[in-house]
Specification:
201 residues; mainly alpha; 76% helix
């Protein structure tokens, strides 16, 4: 695969991620708040906790840290899991009137995100070798890994123009450590107590 072929695909992926994983979740979260539908509000709260790994990934990529290629793939997988994992939330959504606009739109979004993340994770696997490359190689054009860094660097220029990539990378590492600690607590403590019930999260 050539740079000319991959660059537009990678930028399309970032644009779809912004639409499907940031903009539309905010729309459905606000919609659920307006309609006072608790199940979707709870699910979106859980979604943002899980999807925060995407934000962590952006900061890791700004610093060109190879682990960002692993977190990018894991974030997509975890997002799909959290959208369908909770039995009580799924039951509450199923109990809504079948043609209620919020239910139809929300379920359409969940399926769209599921397909997008599955395809995106498979696409990311093609670049998983970048996670085990030296940083110098990552910054070179040879393995095409650098193509994934262009959008995060653009984000840095807009929102963190006065900060160094190293400082933002440290922020990403701190965020990742906190994320791992919370996720471990969920797996080994909360999951055992609550199972697939979202109440109390």
């Amino acid at each position: 695969m050539t740079e000319a072929f991959l660059r537009p695909l990678i930028w399309m992926d970032y644009r779809l991620a912004l639409l499907l994983l940031v903009v539309l979740p905010l729309v459905f979260w606000m919609w659920a708040i307006i309609e006072k539908f608790d199940a979707i509000q709870r699910l979106m709260g859980l979604y943002w906790k899980v999807a925060s790994l995407l934000a962590v990934t952006v900061y890791l990529m700004i610093a060109a840290l190879p682990i960002s290629f692993i977190t990018a793939t894991l974030a997509r997988i975890l997002i799909v899991v959290t959208l369908w994992f909770w039995i009580d939330i799924n039951d509450d959504i199923d109990d809504m009137r079948p043609w209620r606009p919020l239910r139809v739109g929300f379920n359409a979004w969940r399926w769209a995100v599921t397909f997008y993340c599955a395809i995106g994770a498979a696409f990311n696997l093609l670049f998983l070798r970048c996670a085990f490359a030296e940083k110098a190689l990552l910054l070179s054009d040879k393995p095409l890994c650098k193509l994934w860094l262009d959008a995060p660097w653009g984000y840095k220029n807009v929102f963190h123009g006065g900060s160094t990539p190293g400082f933002l990378g440290v922020m990403g590492i701190v965020g990742l450590v906190i994320y791992i600690a919370y996720f471990a607590y969920f797996l080994f403590v909360k999951l055992g107590r609550k199972g697939r019930s979202a109440s109390g999260y």
